[in-house]
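Exercise 7 asks you to align residues with tokens for two separate proteins.
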Amino acid sequence: MAAPESADAFDRDELETWSALATLLEWLPAALDAQLKRDSGISHFDFGILFALSEAEDDTLRMSDLASFANSTLSRLSRAASRLESEGRLRRAPDPADGRITLATLTDEGREFVRAATPGHVSLVRRLVFESLTATQSQQLNTISRRITGAISSHDGWHPPS
């Protein structure tokens, strides 16, 4: 990529790349939210919370870890957890080993909800993302995404469990 002509303006290549990425950052979340709300009555943010719990050991995570994965404040996560708790999809309780820590655990109802909502979500992600890319481009997208998130934060973000 060419060096910028000035520190306060993008060069042509930077502007082309940035405009494509900025558009993606606006359009993709809206498409994911619309599908999940239409098919399952839940936001992408709330689905992400339930999905992360469904992938965690014993379906349980610290609220602070969930907030980090979701790039959310504890306050926003707490409001979402309260809503999901009132719907019977998760429960919160103090950590028996350290009462200062709150654990979120997926309920049986939450597990069934995630199981039912996941196929439509996966189908949309495959259609919008993976079918638009070659296998090599998909691997490159993974690498690029991890590098950009690493430049934003020292937190590693959510990874599927090994």
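Second protein for Exercise 7:
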Amino acid sequence: MQDIVVDPVAHNRAAWDKYVQEGNEWSRPVSAEDVERARMGDWSIVLIGREPVDRSWLPTDLTGKDVLCLASGGGQQGPILAAAGARVTVFDNSPRQLGQDQMVAARDGLELRTVLGPV
């Protein structure tokens, strides 16, 4: 019997790229309206589950703060934090997930950096 070797990085990348194609909930970008609300200070992000992160976890004012969104491509958290004033870098293993962030940034005039790498 031959051992099957699975490359976890390649497997993860392919899975998340497919999720984007399928419209998975973690791959659906935020709306332009969500971005506009974030610009006005009315924002929230969800990291796991369905409940927004407690705002006390983050500074009251994100203006100029450096934020690393690790393994969080998909056009959700990074764009919202960028709209709230943070300098955002989104690091993810999926080119398509990062593409969602890039699409929102271009659509809504946001500055954020995306970095592709294994996670």
